[in-house]
Design brief:
Elements (H helix, E strand, L loop, with lengths): L2 H9 L6 H11 L4 H8 L4 H23 L6 H7 L6 H17 L13 H17 L4 H17 L10 H18 L4 H16 L10 H20 L8 H19 L1
């Protein structure tokens, strides 16, 4: 596979070539995660520069969302309540701030992932925050960003349709793989991080096993906090409680039907 061409197409936020992305997705689709891991190690100096420039651009979007409230202002609020040197909180705040800036019409030239700027912010910023927090070098950080891009591309929808929530899950899975690599994890550990995130977020039978409840519960606790912040700022979802009950009930019904 032409790794450089894939990275150029995947990270370009100005135009999205869905046919090329679908072509690369087919090439990336594999049962052996170690192939993606090894491919990330093949980046050269030019690829490394592309990824690090892209990360810097996305970090500038974060800074724009942190210095003053943009859009929903979630990142701004999270950053001001962040405990010092709390990497988990910083990951959430930086990512939320960049998304605030983007959805408020920010004019930044973002690094995309799978051709989508939102996916690019989600696939890169958590990796960047952790990498710098751990004091990793530029080469290590670039390889982790490359792995995140590759995993995101491999998980893109087969139809070639513009990604929606599935694209966010794919980008989050890419970030999970990249952060595992930065933590000196093995290919197996990164593969398990991807599986853990996807199963838990999608509510699959594997993700609902009691052995996963600690992880899911921790994630939901974070979501509960962020939901409270949005509501406190007057930007929560305007659903009546009865509608929310129906929303959850319908989801449970669909899950049960899929298991039959």
């Amino acid at each position: 596979m032409e790794l450089r061409e894939y990275l150029q197409v995947s990270t370009d936020s100005r135009k999205s070539d869905r046919l090329k992305l679908l072509f690369f997705r087919d090439q990336l689709a594999c049962d052996e995660f170690a192939q993606l891991w090894s491919l990330a190690e093949e980046i050269d100096g030019e690829d490394e520069a592309l990824l690090l420039r892209g990360l810097a651009a996305n970090e500038r979007a974060s800074q724009r969302g942190i210095v003053k409230p943009r859009g929903r202002g979630l990142g701004y609020r999270l950053w001001r309540q962040a405990p010092e040197e709390d990497l988990l909180w910083m990951v959430r705040a930086f990512t939320a701030a960049a998304l605030d800036f983007h959805f408020a019409g920010g004019d930044g030239n973002f690094m995309a992932a799978g051709g989508c700027p939102v996916q690019g912010l989600l696939a890169s910023l958590p990796v960047g925050v952790l990498g710098k927090g751990l004091g990793r070098g530029e080469r290590e950080l670039a390889e982790a960003l490359a792995l995140s891009q590759l995993v995101t591309g491999a998980l893109l929808p087969e139809s070639g349709d513009e990604p929606g929530f599935d694209g966010l899950v794919a980008a989050s899975a890419g970030a999970a793989a990249g952060m595992t690599r930065l933590g000196d994890g093995s290919p197996k550990a990164a593969e398990e991080a991807v599986a853990t995130l996807v199963a838990a977020v999608l509510g699959s039978p594997e993700g609902s096993e009691p052995s996963m409840w600690q992880y899911v519960g921790s994630c939901l606790a974070g979501q509960a906090f962020m939901a409270s912040q949005l509501a406190l700022s007057g930007q929560g979802l305007s659903l009546r409680f009865g509608e929310t009950r129906c929303l959850l009930g319908d989801w449970v019904k669909r899950q049960r039907e899929e298991l039959l």
